[in-house]
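The methods section describes the discrete structure representation at length, but only in general terms. What matters is that the chain and its backbone geometry are given together, residue for residue. For illustration, here is how one protein appears when written out as sequence plus structure tokens:
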Amino acid sequence: MSGTERRGPVVESVATLAELRERIPAAEGVPTGVPGLDELFFVPEWRDGRLHRRPLGGIPRHAVLQVTGVADTGKSLLVEQYAVTRAAAGETVAFVTMESPAPFTAMGLRTRATALGLDRAAVERRVVLLDGATHTVLARDLAALLDTLAFAIRTHRVCHVVLDSLTGLFEAREMLARDVVRPLFGFLKTWHQTALLVSQKRSGHEALTAEAAGGYAVAHILDGSLVLAKHPVLSPQAARLHRVPLGETVRLFRIDGCRLAGHDTRTHHCEIGPDGILRIGPPLTRTVAGGEEEAS
């Protein structure tokens, strides 16, 4: 037995549901600023002996979700839209950038706020940037990152965290992904944060699975995954299915599990408009008997 282990029961870890009643968070949606996404989450409720879906109106508050996909699928756009939308609503966001230095990330956030028609000055007051791209100790030393995040949360009264990207914390040492993700998840839960963590896929991964760099450990630990994908349309059959010309690139989106709320399980089309805004569209069409197509 190591010196850090203790004998006997951990009594403080045991509690009844009644004892936890006051600590159970209410089911509340957080609007994301991504058109078409907020409608995909709901709370199942029984009324008059029948199951009903109460729209949540956003991702669940206090959820820690992975946003995953290969390059150029819209992951950073999604989290940037979320950050500026929450900031414009008066809630402070800590945006941890591991890929691009803070001034360049700030440029993208300002662009997203303008495209969404938000008050840019209000957004700038409520987004706190943590620059892990320049100050690489934040990527190499998890304790330093968590201490810095705790400082930002206390100082600026942060209630949302965006991390772009989680993969930067275990780059080239993916066997350690679980040892990074689990303490980070526990930290965000302890501080009652709602968080979106960007996670890169390798090109060899199946496009619409939750698996990312670091393996399934990432999706297994977090509360759920938002998966983005893209496919070149190279056959007449695919062109008919997606209703686009041959040679176009189709973007897809799905929610791969969410512990804290019900959610639409279908695969949806999505698009990045000329304004640089990611939008979630209708579910994929499906082929029916007779060879015709209808919306699923």
Confidence is low (pLDDT under 50) at residues 286-296. The first strand starts at residue 29 and ends at 30. The CA atoms of residues 287 and 293 lie 5 Å apart.
